[in-house]
Amino acid sequence: MSTLKPKPKHRPFCFSVKGHVKMLRLALNVTSMTFFIIAQAPEPYIVITGFEVTVTFFFILLYILRLDRIMDCLFWPLLDIINSAIAAIFMIIISVLSLLPETTTFIVLGGVFGLLVAVCCIADGVLMYRKLLFNPSGPYQKRTIHDKI
């Protein structure tokens, strides 16, 4: 006679720590982009922050709709870590460049919010890395001897 294991309750993405960090990252990025647009900052500042807003929004949409479970041809956590690392590097560069010269107050505010976005990107990447470290999935998943029986 087999015993049934209770299925662990799935917590929605919006209520997880990863979800909160990713939504905070999106909100800060939109704020930074808005300040850059209001101040009529150089175009690369607006384009890079706009691109990050778009990519972050699509990752949130992907996780909310659980499309990462359906489209298993890509390893989504690894793509999310790579995106977080590249976004952190770009946002640090853009923020430092916007803070260096004598600029308007709105460009400085956009740079400060950009630095906060970079911190959120690093936190997001660390959370995804910890998820991969403690809960591997895919072909490299560790299995115990009891699972083979």
Walkthrough of the structure:
With 149 residues, this protein is mostly helical. Helix content is 71%, strand content 0%. It contains six helices and no strands. The protein is elongated.
What's a concise summary of this model?
By secondary structure, the chain is mainly α. The chain contains 6 helices and no strands. The radius of gyration is 19 Å and the shape is elongated.
Task: Summarize model confidence as the mean pLDDT.
Answer: 85
The total of beta strands comes to 0
Structural class: mainly alpha
- The level of helicity is over 70%
What's the number of helices?
A: 6
Tell me what portion of residues adopts beta-strand conformation: under 5%
- Sheet having the most strands: none
Low-confidence stretches: none
Roughly how many Å apart are the termini?
15 Å
Sum up the overall morphology in one term: elongated
SSE order, one letter for each helix or strand: HHHHHH
Q: How large is the radius of gyration?
A: 19 Å
